[in-house]
Q: What sequence folds into this?
């Protein structure tokens, strides 16, 4: 079970390109027109992963707290960029508040996981901090995008209902309580579903990675549990905090709905 | 033919020191057309609802109102008329701050509306939307909805007997507090929405075509109820497309060419 991990040599990696050639050949034969995309995709995957690999090795070697946090900030920035692309409504500026709250919330959550639960010293040790933070940010990115998209679309679709409540003396929170809850709930469903299906449908990536690198599966599941529970918590906190923050911006100081 | 009301007409209603002389129901006064400042502002402070040189446009749209002014006194029954898209609904929405003027001020009982917490203002200046909006649930759930809001926490939710009495009063005979809200016709829903707003004992009601979906008999009942309100000192501002004016109407406001005038 345990033992040193088998290295993948360059010629083995090169051999792996055979898979792409196979897919490319099928594309040409069936006139799928995917040849160019396959080529670009393969080159990008190689370039991006090699780059990240070397950057990570550098960050792991130099072990500087500010560099770890800088990399974390960059990851959050990339996540917010993705969220920006997925949320169609542009009426309410949400990018900067989302970036700042993700940065603060997820720094704290990852600190808690590495420093308290896993017990790494120092808490920013890059081998732990960066992969765990990456999972938190990547997962929450989906939750926040779903939640914001739902918030904006429901506030628009249920405009009359929100104004009815405002006209009856509700404050903006009371007038949009149902919509906020619906948006956060929609964002939470995927991570709750994955809690239900884990281990039965697939082995999660992190656990697979640990098992491949020789870790005892019973150790790997502990890490996986920490990660999954951490993800549920960080998704809930992030989606709730950011959706509530952006919801406030959907109303003017006069508690008037700005989305039409 | 609509006419602009200048300060001369205003002087008919207000003494020189700015205190109202004839403060009875139905006095509508349109200051600000002449551009004389402080005296008129003092006058408007005595009105229940007032617009002071208000300009408004929806974002990216043409001007809806330009330096429009208006003052409505306690117990007035003002009917708002004008062509479609002239800004009648916008006027009502401005009065309860669901829209905010680009320029100018809006006053409720002499206080600029932006100095009041919006929930408190909207509880006092009740806006009833043209399209009735009810939530899933019973008529009772819908009528008790606003009593859950913090701004209304001092009010007691209506009892079933009270609800039934109010339903009967507006000819909603077949309905009980337990009737499912999604089974109501538009006309019934419109009346339930009116009841819901009146349960908050507002000082003024803004009605956006409350009789548009009603048969003649129900419309008459709603107008009678509205007239009773204005007789008890509640100010009524009602949009109507109907050619025939409600008998109880004390003033007709025309929204025309980005100004407010009375006919």
A:
């Amino acid at each position: 079970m345990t033992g040193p991990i088998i290295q993948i040599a360059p010629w083995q990696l090169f051999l792996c390109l055979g898979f792409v050639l196979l897919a490319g050949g099928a594309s040409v034969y069936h006139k799928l027109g995917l040849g160019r995309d396959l080529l670009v995709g393969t080159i990008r995957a190689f370039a991006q992963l090699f780059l990240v690999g070397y950057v990570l090795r550098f960050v792991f070697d130099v072990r500087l707290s500010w560099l770890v946090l800088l990399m974390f900030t960059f990851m959050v920035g990339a996540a917010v960029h993705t969220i920006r692309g997925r949320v169609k409504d542009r009426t309410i500026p949400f990018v900067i508040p989302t970036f700042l709250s993700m940065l603060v919330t997820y720094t704290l959550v990852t600190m808690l996981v590495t420093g308290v639960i896993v017990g790494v010293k120092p808490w920013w040790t890059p081998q732990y901090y960066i992969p765990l933070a990456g999972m938190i940010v990547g997962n929450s990115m989906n939750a926040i995008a779903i939640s914001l998209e739902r918030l904006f679309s429901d506030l628009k679709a249920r405009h009359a209902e929100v104004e009815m409540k405002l006209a009856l003396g509700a404050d903006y929170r009371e007038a949009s309580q149902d919509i906020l809850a619906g948006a956060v709930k929609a964002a939470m469903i995927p991570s709750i579903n994955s809690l239900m299906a884990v281990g039965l449908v697939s082995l999660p990536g992190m656990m697979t990675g640990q098992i491949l690198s020789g870790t005892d599966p019973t150790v790997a599941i502990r890490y996986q549990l920490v990660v999954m529970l951490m993800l549920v918590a960080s998704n809930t906190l992030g989606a709730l905090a950011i959706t509530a923050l952006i919801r406030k911006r959907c109303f003017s100081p006069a508690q008037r709905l700005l989305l039409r | 033919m609509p006419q602009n009301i200048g300060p001369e007409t205003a002087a008919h209603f207000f003494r020189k020191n700015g205190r109202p002389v004839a403060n009875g129901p139905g006095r509508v006064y349109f200051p600000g057309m002449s551009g004389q400042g402080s005296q008129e502002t003092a006058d408007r402070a005595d009105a229940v609802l007032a617009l002071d040189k208000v300009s408004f446009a929806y974002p990216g749209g043409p001007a809806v109102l330009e330096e429009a002014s208006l003052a409505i006194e306690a117990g007035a029954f003002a009917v708002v008329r004008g062509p479609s898209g002239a800004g009648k609904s916008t006027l009502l929405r401005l009065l309860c701050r669901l829209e905010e003027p680009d320029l100018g001020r809006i006053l409720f009982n002499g206080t600029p509306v932006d100095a009041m917490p919006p929930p408190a203002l909207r509880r006092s200046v009740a806006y009833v939307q043209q399209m009735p909006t009810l939530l899933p649930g019973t008529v009772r759930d819908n009528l008790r909805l606003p009593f859950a809001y913090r701004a209304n926490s001092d009010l007691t939710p209506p009892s079933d007997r009270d609800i039934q009495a109010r339903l009967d009063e507006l000819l909603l005979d077949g309905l009980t507090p337990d009737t499912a809200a999604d089974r109501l016709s538009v006309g019934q829903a419109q009346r339930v929405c009116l009841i819901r707003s009146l349960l908050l004992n507002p000082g003024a009601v803004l009605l956006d075509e409350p009789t548009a979906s009603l048969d003649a008999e129900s419309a008459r009942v709603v107008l009678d109820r509205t007239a009773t309100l204005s007789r008890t000192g509640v100010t009524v501002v009602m949009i109507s497309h109907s050619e025939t004016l409600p008998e109880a109407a004390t003033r007709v406001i025309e929204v025309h060419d980005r100004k407010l005038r009375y006919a």
